[in-house]
Amino acid sequence: MMYAALSLLILGSLGTKLIGLASGAVTSHNPGENWVQPSGATLDGCPTSCGNLSFNYPFGIGSRCSRGPDFDLTCNDTTVDSPRLFFRDGITEVIDNIDVLTDGNYYGPHTLIRASFFRTIPMKSSASVYHMPFKPPGSYFTIDSSTILNITGCDLDVYLVDDDKLRTKWVCRIVCPDQGITEMVAMHNCNGFGCCRVELVTPDADGFHFKFFRLHRKSNTGASSKETSRLWDRISITTDGGFWVSWRIRDQPTCVAAMRNRSTYACVSKHTKCRDSSCSKDVKCVDGGMPSRDGYECNCINGYPGNPYIPDGCSNDKGYNPFPSRTNCTSQCGNIIVQFPFGLEDGCFAREEFHLNCTNMTSSAVLKMSDSQVIGMNVTEGTIKLTEREAVYAIFGGGRNLFVGFELSVKWAAANLSGLEAQQNRSGYACVSMNSKCVAVNTADNYIGYRCICSEGFQGNPYIQSGCQDVDECREPNICKGICHNTEGSFNCTSCPRKTEYDAGKMRCTTTKQQTLILGIIIGLSCGFSILFLSFTTLFLVRRQKTYVKKQIRKKCFRKNQGLLLEMLMSSDGTTENDKSRIFLLEELEKATNNFDPTCVIGRGGHGIVYKGILSDQRVVAIKKAMVIEQCEISQFINEVAILTQINHRNIVKLFGCCLETEVPLLVYDYVSSGSLSQVLHADSSDGFSLSWGDYLRIALETARALSYLHSSASISIFHRDVKSSNILLDENYTAKVSDFGASRQVPIDQTHIFTNVQGTFGYLDPEYFHTRQLNGKSDVYSYGVVLVELLLRMKPIFTSESGTTQNLSNYFLQKLKDGKITSIVSSQVLEEATEEEIRSVASLAEACLRLHGEERPTMKQVEMEMQTLRTKRESSCQASPRNEGRTQPGSLTRRSSKAARQSSAMIFGERINLWSGDSQQCYSLEQEFMSSATIPR
C-alpha cells in the first residue's frame, strides 16, 4: 500500500543515539560529474525497498535511481533469510530504514543512517601481525560518535593505530586457556577469554585502524584441529548494537556556493531551505550565521513536509476527504471495530494514510497498518495501539506528520493544518458532526495538526454526520442527591419530595421508614455479643491449630534436613563437651534475634542472610540463613557442618551449632565483630580509618595458615573453593577468621584432586579449574593470589577502568608487572608504609600464585612459609631501628629512614626476582603499636 504523506513520531525525547563505525575502502566521487536532476520520469520504476527496509532519493539502487555513486545501494537477495541492504562498499550493512523526509524541523534525524559492520581476517601460521582499517562507506559520509566493537580470536594483543600521529595504543589482550572455547561462549562474556570489548569514544570522520599482534605460546603447539575452535583460525570484528553514519551533500562546501550552480543544487523541491551542515540549533547559517565548509542539507519548510531532494517533494496537506464515497463499509476486523476516518475498503477512509488491511473477517483476523499490527484503536481519544515499537519511528509516503506517540500508544491527527486553516476549506474539514470541535495535536517540541472531539455533554464519532450524541448524565450513579433531569448537552437536579429521602444504594428517592429505638438497640447488642463470642472462639481455635501445625512442620523439617545424621556426626567428632557443636531449637534462635528482626541483619549475600543474635548464655553469635530452598543447598549446608565440626584453628571461624527445624537450615557461628577484609580494604577513604601495612601482612599470613591447615594439617584434606576477601572476617583484634565453607570439598588422603561442578566467585576463580573441573589445592592458591593483589592495589577483582570498560584485576596486575610498572598501580598507602623490597616480594608471590597452570603454582604450605619469612623480616627490621627520642602521642606513626640503600633479592619457588634498593621503611615500637591499636574502633 502506498502511504502519501504520513509519519509516526514518538512523544517525548528519543534520547541520545549511540553512533558507531563503518569500514571499507571507498573512493571519493563527485556526483555532479554525471548527475542528472531527478524527475518523475527518471525515478519511475526505481525500487524503494529491500526486504523490510525502505529508502528514498537521493539514495537508490542503480545509477539512474540515485544522486551518485556514494548514494548507490546494493540489495543482496541471495541470503537465506530476508534480503540485506548494503552501501556501495559491500561491507557496511544498512539495518534500519533510510529516511530523508522532513517536516520543517531542521534538527530531525533524517541525515543519520543506522548500520552494522562485520569483518573476518583469516590467520596464517606464518603471519604474526594483522591490520584492519575502519573507513566510512563514502566521501559523503562521516562517523558520528562512539561505538563498541567485539573482537574475537586467540592469543592476540590489540592496538589502536593513529595514522596521522604514527602512534599506537594498546587496548586489550585476548587469551584462550581452553582450546575448545566456542565463539558463542567467548562473545557471551567478552572479558578477555576469546573475546574483548573495545569502546571507541572519540569520533573520527576518517575511521579507525586496528593492529593485531599474535602471541606465540608453547601450549598452543601440537593441538589437533579437532581440539581447537575456530577462534584460532581467524579474527572477527563486529559492532555491538550497530552504529550511526551521518551524511550530507558535499559537492559544494556551503549553501551559498551550491546555489550558484542550479544544475547541481540538491534542494530541488519548492518550499525548501538549505542549511550548512555545521550550523548548530541556536545558529541557523541560512539566516546570517557563519558558513561551514563541510557541505549542506536540504529541509522542507514548516507546513510543507516531504522529500526536499525531488521536484514537488514538499507539499501542503490537502488529502483529507470528510465524506466516504460508498456506503455499507465493513467496520470490523476480528474483535476490533474500525470507524471512519479509518477504513478497510476503497471509498471507506478519509485519506490514504488511514487505509487499513484485514487478513480476513473472522475472530482471528489480523488488522495491519503498513507492516505494523493494530491491536486497538479509539477514535474518541485519537489513539492507535501497535504491536511493533519500530512502527512509531516509521515514515510513510510523503512524510505527513499525522501520527505522534510513545512506545506502542500512538496519537494521530486528521491533517497537518491548524484548526483555523482547516475550517477555511469546509469541503476538507474533518469535524463534520454537529456539536463537535477541533483540538490541536502536539509533541513536546512542535505542532503536528488537528483532530476532532465531541463537545462537552456529547459523545460518539465527530468525523461522521450526527456522530456526536447527547450523553444522559442521569444514568451515572449518585450524580444528583435528588431527582436528575437530563437536558441537551447537560443536566440539572431537584431535591427529593417531602417525606422522602435519597437512597444511595437504589439511586432514587425513597419513603422514610421509622424504626423503634428499643428494637434497634436490642438487635444491635445481640448481634454484637454474638460476633464477639464467635471471634474469641475462632481466635482460640486458630492459635491452637497454628501451634500444632508449627510443631509438625518443625519435625518434618528436622527429618528432611537429615537431623539424625548430623546428631551422629556431632556426637562422634571426638571433641570435648564444651567445644562440641550442638543442635539449637528454633525458639532459642528466634529469641536471640528478636524473631529475626530486620534490624539484626549484619550481612546479605547471593545465597543468604546473616543475623546477629545473643544466646541465653550471653554469647554473641552470627546466624546464617540460606535464601534458596533446594536439595543442593541442603547438601551444601550438611557439608559445611560436617567440615566445621572437624576443624579447630584460631584463624577459622568457630561453629557453635545449627538449627534444623526450619525449611531453610540455620548455622550458628561465633560473631566476628569487625566485618570482612573486603569491607576494610574498600572502605571510603573519608572515614579516616585504615589498617597499617603491617596489619595487612599479618592478616595475609593468618589466612595462609588457615588454608595450609585445611590442605595438609586437618585429619582429611579440605579445599575451600571460595577464597575471597569478603570470606576473610576480622575479630575485635583484627585477627583473620576464614569463613563460608558451603562450597568446600573433602578429599581422600590417596587423591590429589577431584572432579566437581564449578563453583566460586568470578574474579577469584581459578581458570584451570573453570575449564577442567578438576578441583585441587592449587585452586585455593590462585584465589589467595587475587587477595594479595587486592592488598597491594586496593582494587576490586572486577573493576571498571577510566574508559568505562570492565577489567579483570589479575590480568591487569600481571600485565603491569610484566611491563615493569608495578609501582604505578600500587596503593598510595602501601607505597608510603611498605618498603620496596616488601612490595616486590608480595608482588612476586602473587604472580607465582596466579600462574595459569596449577603445577607451576606453590602449595599453600610454601605460601605460608614465604609470608612468615616476609613478616619476620619486617619485625626484625623494626626491632633493629633506633627508638625515637621523646614522648609519642597515642596512635601516631613513627617514621624511620635508612640512609644506606639496600640491594637484595628474594628466592620464590626456584625463581629469583631482583629487588631494587629502598630508601625508607616505617616501623612501630611495642608501646606505639599498643597505643595505636587502642584508638581503633571496635
Automatic annotation (TrEMBL):
Keyword presence, Hydrolase: no
Membrane topology: Single-pass type I membrane protein
Gene3D superfamilies: Laminin, Phosphorylase Kinase, domain 1, Transferase(Phosphotransferase) domain 1
Predominant location category: membrane
Bias (Polar residues) ranges: 877-894
Entry annotated with the keyword Glycoprotein: yes
InterPro entries in the cross-refs: EGF, EGF-like_Ca-bd_dom, EGF_Ca-bd_CS, Growth_fac_rcpt_cys_sf, Kinase-like_dom_sf, NOTCH1_EGF-like, Prot_kinase_dom, Protein_kinase_ATP_BS
All residue ranges annotated as the Protein kinase domain in the record: 596-870
Signal peptide range: 1-24
GO biological process terms, semicolon-separated: cell surface receptor signaling pathway
Transmembrane segments: 517-542
Xref: PROSITE patterns: EGF_CA, PROTEIN_KINASE_ATP, PROTEIN_KINASE_DOM, PROTEIN_KINASE_ST
Subcellular location: Membrane
Binding-site list for ATP: K625
Domain of life: Eukaryota
GO terms, molecular function: ATP binding; calcium ion binding; polysaccharide binding; protein serine/threonine kinase activity
Keyword terms of this UniProt record: ATP-binding, Disulfide bond, EGF-like domain, Glycoprotein, Kinase, Membrane, Nucleotide-binding, Serine/threonine-protein kinase, Signal, Transferase, Transmembrane, Transmembrane helix
Chain intervals for the UniProt region annotation (Disordered): 868-903
GO cellular component: plasma membrane
Protein name in UniProt: Protein kinase domain-containing protein
